[in-house]
Write a structure and sequence with these properties.
Blueprint lengths: L1 E5 L1 E3 L2 H5 L22 H8 L8 E7 L6 E7 L2 E7 L5 E8 L5 E10 L19 E11 L3 E6 L4 E5 L4 E7 L2 E6 L19 E4 L7 E2 L1 E3 L9 E2 L5 E8 L2 E7 L4 E9 L2 H15 L5 H7 L1 H7 L5 H8 L47 E2 L7 E4 L35 H5 L9 E10 L6 E6 L5 E7 L4 E8 L9 E9 L2 E5 L4 E5 L5 E5 L2 E9 L8 H6 L34 H4 L1 H4 L7 H7 L1 H4 L8 E8 L2 E6 L4 E5 L7 H13 L2 H15 L9 H15 L37 H8 L2 H14 L28 H15 L6 H17 L3 H10 L15 H4 L15 H9 L7 E3 L5 H14 L12 E3 L11 H10 L4 H11 L4 H5 L3 H15 L8 H6 L3 H12 L21 H4 L15 H5 L20 H7 L5 H9 L5 E2 L10 H20 L1 H8 L21 E3 L4 E3 L12 H13 L10 H6 L7 H15 L8 H9 L3 H14 L6 H10 L15 H14 ...
Parallel strand pairs: 1-30, 6-21, 15-22, 34-35, 36-37, 42-48
Antiparallel strand pairs: 2-33, 3-4, 4-5, 5-6, 7-8, 8-9, 9-10, 11-12, 12-13, 13-14, 15-16, 17-18, 18-19, 19-22, 20-21, 23-24, 24-25, 25-26, 27-28, 28-29, 29-30, 31-32, 32-33, 37-38, 39-40, 41-45, 43-44, 43-46, 46-47
Amino acid sequence: MISCGDAQEFVPFGRDYLDHHPGEVGLPPPRPGQAPHPDLDILRQLHTVSINGSKDWWMIRESNDGLTEEELYVSGSRVVWSRGQGEARRPVQCFTCDTLVTHALFATFHTRPDPPLPDAASSDGKDVKKPEGNSMGSVCVVENDCLTVFSEEGRDYSVPLPFPVGRVWSGNWGLVLERQVGGNTTRLGHTSDAALPTLYSLLHPLDDINPVICKTNSSEGAQPQYVSDPGQKVIFYCDNPSILVFHSSTSGAHTIWRVRSATNEENNSVLQSVLDNTNGGNTPISALLSNPSAYLYQNTNHSLSHALHQQQPLPHPPHSASLHHPSTHSLSHHHLFSSTIGTPTHCHTPGHTPSSTSRTRGGVYPSVSVTPKGHLMQTPKNHMAMLSRTQSPSLVGTPHTPRLPSLSDSLIEPEPLVPDLCLDLLWTDHSPARATTAFLTQDAAGQCYLCLVLAQAGVVRCLRYDPPGPNQPSPVFGTATNIPGRDAQGVPALNMIVVLEGSSSLSLYSGVVLVSRINLCGLPPFGSSLFQDFSTLNISSRLFSPPAPISTATPLRRSSLVTSSRPPSAAEAKFDAILSPVVGERSNLDTSMTEESTGLPLSWAIVGLRDPAGARLTLEHASGALYRIALPDLASSYPVRQCLAALRAVLPKDAALHLTNRWYATRNAPGSGDFSPEGEWTLFSRTLLAAAGYDTDKLALSGPGEAPGDHTSSFGASKKFRASENGSDSDWEYLLSSPLHAAVGDNMSQVLGLQKVRVVTRPLAGERGNMDTTASLFPHLPGLLMALHLVYEDFKLSVLHWDFCLLLVPCLQQLAADLRLYQYLHLYWRDFPYVCSTHSPPLQLSLEDSGKLTRPSYLPEQPPNILGHLHAIMGRHNPEPFPCLPEVCTTTRNLVLLYSLASQPPTHHPSLDHYLKPVTESEQGSLELSWWSDLEGETRKGAGQERVVLLMAELGLTVRDVQLLAPGVALPLMNAQHLCRTWPPQHWPPAAYHLVQRPDLVAHRKEASRTQVNTVRDSFSVRIPTQMDDDAFISGKTTRIGTGTGASGSASTSATAGTGSGSGLQEEDGMEMLDEALLRLRWPEDQRVVEVRRMLCSARPVTINVVQRPEVSDHDFLEEQERHLYALCVRTMALPVGRGMFTLCTAAPLPTEPLSIPRLNLTGRAPPRGTAVDLSNIEVPPNMEMWPHFHNGVAAGLKVAPDRGRVDSTWIVYNKPRGNLDTPTQHAGFLMALGLNGHLRQLATVSVHDYLARGHEMTCVGLLLGLAADKRGTMDLQITKLLSVHLECLLPPTSTELDVPHTVQVAAILALGLLYQDTAHRHMAEVLLREIGRPPGPEMENSSDRESYSLAAGLALGLVMFGRGGEAAGLADLQVASQLHHYIQGGRKKPLLPAYKDKYKSPSYQIKEGESVNIDVTAPGATLALGMIYFNTNNAAVARWMTPPATPYLLDQVRPDFLLLRTVALGLITWDSVLPTAEWVEAHVPSSVLTHVHRGGNQSTPGIDYESMHQAYYNILAGACLVLGLKFAGSSNNQAFDVLWKYTTMFTNFTKRSVAELAGRSTLETCLNTSLLALSLVMAGTGDLDVLRIIRHLRSRVGPANSTVGYGSHLVIHMALGFLFLGGGRFTLATTNMAVASLLIACFPKFPTHSNDNRYHLQALRHLYVLAAEPRLVMPVDVDTGRLCQVKVMIGFRGTCEYPGVKYEVMAPTLLPELSKLSTVTLEADTPDHRYWPISFTRGHASWDVLARLLRSGAGVAVKLRDGRHPYTRTDTPHPAAPANLPAPLFTTDPAARWTIKSCVLSEVSGCSAQLVHALVGGIAPSSSTASTSTSPSSSAKQSSASSRSLGSSEACGNEKREEEIENGFTQALMTIVYEYLSVGMPQAIPNWLAALQGIRQVSDLSQRAGLLVWQAKLISRAAHFLHPVNPHPVAPLSSTVEGIGERTRPLVSPEQALSLGKRLQSLTDTWMMQEVRGQVISYLKGETDCQLTPKCAFILTLLDLPTPIDIQGCSNPLSLLSKLCSSRLPSSVISSLAKVLFIDHR
């Protein structure tokens, strides 16, 4: 009998919770599609009145964490989902529906359920597909006509039910629904529905409810059919294995079916068979497939009787369903909760209308969800009511509304429902009754059973089956066994069954084997008194005394529950009788339990079992109460669990089952159930040996904390009882064996100088016990020894398990002695000489009986020694495969594989059987690991240490696991980690980087995996944390890895960027979200960022510094102030474009707040009083603020980082303007910015329509450009249609004319180019080519600003065919080049196409062009289009067209500004020949021009127009400068900078000289702006101070003296400023094809003259630079602190045919050049002066893609600081020639420094290792010298006085000196180790060496663990010789590709340290050998049994690898010994040690 503790009364949590539920208050009205009956409300109220009370039920399951439970409680129309355990249970969600809930259950769906298989390959089960995709845990609530699914993520789905559902089951294929059959309940309109399917499936809430088919025969010719038998009812459905159990009421049999996906062939077959069987008749199925809408029409409105039928109380759900229905009706209080407060969430799925069926109540109950049915027909499953698939609603359309089917609907041919699941018949079982419930279980041996509870027959029928496997796709059922019982439930945590027998008692079964009865406490008696129940027990009267506290009461012995006349041994003899398979007759069971039944009360009135979860289940009492019990664990200590697992693996299944059941019954017998690990092990060992036949009463199995002979203490009492009042020797031995003595005794003996007192293990008095050879485990004694020994060896590998080895030794010693395996005895004695001896314990197995045993082949003569095996592997001895239990002794398996892999060359890949020998029951078998073959391919790529680390990662080892290994064992693994830490391979998984302690590389892989490579339209995806993320904006500290850069600036920093007014709260300037920490690191020396913010601030009034002259009146002075203000306002209106560049992607919006747009302040303040000045007294252009407001909106929108998780359509519409007239214009720019950043694709189509329907011109411009930019290059059909509405050229000629503003047409034509960029689409190219020369008209159309339209068409054509030249297939007939040349050179117009002649019959009323091409309109667009089309083609013919004319006459025929465009086009065509030299720039100027520029008046030539010459010269230079800027954009090329700086300063100087009058100031201003823009393109993102100075100078040109400096000049100046600080210093520009095209459009060198000027170029196109911007800033982030830091970066360029590869080093944060031009990027190369661990990104490897993703996402590059190093400071310089400011490194590379290190140096260690070092060094004297000098005179005097008063003072003083020298030596050795391993960055290895040093001290002190510590010292000493060949070459980052980087990485175990440790061991052994140990060793080797051996002898034997006793008689000299030993095949090292011991005199 076992005890399961007190039963606790159980009340469902949901019942208490619903006591305070508001009920149906506030529910929505009924569904509009149904007309409620007037008396329906009264009938519902009457329905709530019931004689039986309320009907509720619930289900309980185990949570995913395995520690708590989840409850789903249903009462009426309310469902409560709760989670927790006991009093800690809390609600998760509560659902309230408007009708009764018929079913509720937990279910799991898959987001991508598999479709039917394409063929019939799976019909035989070989290729059965399982659901794939992400699982979605859900709660399913079933009502009368609706199934609602609530997912754990917050989504909800509503699925209409086309039929009444009888029961619902959940499994791995979603839901299985059983149609309710009988009566008039069918909703299809037919009363005879027997032929309709009865079983349906639902794979996903958004799928159809499809019928299930079945196949009764697995042959190929078997025809599937629908499951339509109404007599078949589902009993059970599970997912592992996927089976379903039916019961047939006609045959009375249970059938078991396999559930799988249906194939297309099966679906076609079943549908065809149905159609063939009908023969045109009107059967239900044929009518269903032919006209399903007719059925829906017949029953659209339900009758009242049907509604009442649905409202009646539901019958009792059967126990086999997922919900149970008890007979309790009490209600209790509840607890409030708020787990899902917020707005309702819905599922948005393409092709389906979002479901909106759940609401969230407010007020006191905010988390109560309501499921109304008023919107049921709006769900995506309204077409499910027809049982057929119809066309899904389109993505854009109105929701479905309830309607009656029309005639057209009935005429539509429906698509039949295709089954998703198919059932295959596996087994038929003819049972005597119908099963009420079923469950799966396993027994202790792993045998699987399907249990059917036949309550009517009083039998639990167990069907044994073999689970599916690789070669067996479906389970195979076999024998059936009946267990008597009324009810049963499985206990998954224990793999057992609790059976309720007919006598209302509980029994526990493991499979079909009875374990024991269950003793229940806490249940009230039923029909008898408590005294009567206990009166049958013959127990001492003290049981009825008042209970004492547990801490003071004496625990009951387990034998006290039996009668006093029974002997104690009778308690164990019962197991042999009851542990047998159960047979059908009850008599056998009754006879086996006769003795126990007489003493137990069987009047417990238990009537049922339910709700198993883990080890807990609920009992139903006859009184109606429920009680929850928890069964005890199988074992609580780790050694017992491991030994049980090992025994199950070795023993046969029946023997393992017998042992497990016997142990469980013994351990959990009534009495004290609290065990210490030692007590539980003692009990287990005695149980095991008793089952093997031992007489345990006569065994001396003493644990570490148990007195010898005290074998009864673990059974009953928690402490030893006093044997007598006077005491005995056993009491003293008990004290010596106590844990207190073990912990304190050794130290006290050492301090007091006393001899250590040990417990001498002695045999018990009395005769030797006899073994029972008939015991069940007696034949398996060798297997018991082998299993326990392998566990013992596994425990030796971990420091935490060394104490467990002491527990196993007595049991192992007894087994080995009885099996006469004396080699095992010697091994245990060498490991623990204080516990074991070489003499065997008293034997119980006679020699005759031992002959009956058959020793298996896996039990070798020599005991397996894992430490010796690893030692041999490191010695390159190639030992035999080590026996192992792979699934139990995982540490042994892992280490043998790791050591073997490290010792083998990379080309050697043997099988696993070469390393390990699996120990199995059948004595045969091979080790199979699925990953080994895959790992071989990976490990071939790397060196030995890389293979080891990769294998560690594959085995699942962590750094913590390695640290917990034994010191000597872990050191080679740590060495592999250490060698790979500096330069780990770049293709490793994150787990491998964790092992080498490189969290920085792990962070890179995680960020890269999260940020997948986007498509071409997503140039970057920077993520910025919002203001709510971890209070980043409050603390100023944020972890940047994985969350972007994070704005760590505070509001206080923004005040520094103000104008200095210092007035209170500053107004937002749009630059508050800048990353101040990053900006301080990038430019720490000056205030350039503050100056930039000041220059770009447009939200504050400007200062009017105008002094009133005496002669000026006040009125005139006011006008003068306003004129000056207007000049400043012109500059202010140009600021937003630059601010948008500066703040690009620097903020993330809050989803609950609109984005704030800073004001565009056009007012001023006049000092000193700050008088307000506005533009009220002077005339200003009308609407001059329109486009500046547009730019202001763009600047605000560009701040939003392209993280789509925070921007959706709702938020975009939420920002819709509701204010003044300027707000719509700003919102238009905001929309365009969202499109440029990739957010506008989230905007719903209906919202797009709403925006365009308003007809706002600016909104249309921004929206069209934004949508096209977001969808660029995709040829999206929907956007194409949208653009076609605004472009007349894409509409048919006869279409209705639309009044589209000209600017909208310009935006639409360029948007078309963006949408079709780089596609060479023929039709679009043809249209755009024609639109370049679009004539004016008809009438008033296309008569103004034609230049911008023609230019936009040309640029769009260039985008579509960029770089294609004449290579695009199918475009040759268009003659694009010749047509464009015609537009450039002019000539007669070509005739219009016939389709357009009618359109242009009416000429233009404003413009008369004639028959010639107006090249003033067409030339700019055609010129740039030609250059873009022939980009980088070097086409000589086209290039000649773009060459400036060589003669003055021809030069006069070309406008000078067109020469600028031709020069740009020429540079685009000859892109590869562009050079950053002044000679290349000057080469574009014709010689005829050079000879006539800059000449004096006396040198003038008649007939030469010098103004034209100078204009041509300057324009050509400006065009060449622009080409240089595009070519070297974002490169910071010094040569390009010098050239552009030269011409920019030249143009700046010319504006002040007379030459400006000669060429025209406007021309010089345009050329200056162009060169300045080119200069800023080259230096984009660098914040160059020289460029900033010239920008500041040029923007100061304000006022009447600078009349040529207008709005366009200020626009360019601030664009240059924005380029210089692009994205807050995080962005730069790319030079890809599309980037060059975007920059060319944005920087078109024709600038507006005023703020509303769009004649030549649409101002909105200036923002297309965003398409060329890319984040290339390397931002190092300390992975430990999360803060930005500085590191050194080595950048390597790729070599080309013109330039060799070069490298240079800079300090990061820094901008990288384009990755296409780089070969390597190395952070902190492995050099002595670098302070962080190196990181290398190499082209062609996986790391290069990681770098690209890190840069694209804007995330920081994680770096890790080396131990003992300090971060860089501002004064540090990256150049090695100036190291004066660098702090001295804490660690040096001098090998001799570690031997003289002082502790004061180590105290300065910082970082992660500081705590460890300070703990080690804190209590240690600084050094030996300081320690010797630190002895003060007073202490010396005390020592001298004490020595003078004692006898033998000189000897005592000598001992003290020796002890002090030893202590100082130990201290210095510790210092050396700490310093050495900190210098190489491996502080984790310090405890290993410290353990080795302490091990030597403990060996010398003869500690109890000394035997294992000796092995650790040996392993460490051997590791030094093993590890050096493993790493013979320097480790560098891919040395084949990266040269000159890296230094040699020393192995972790240096030869010096190993030699030092070896000398210490040799000194210790020599000291012992000089004493009495040598004689003991010789006696041991000779096999003399009468010699008393000390522990020192055992340690000497282990240290010297001496063998067990051998025959060396007659070997009087070394030669004879050598021949004798060689014949014994001993290793040479052993022979050397033997010769040393036997023949070298140790004197």
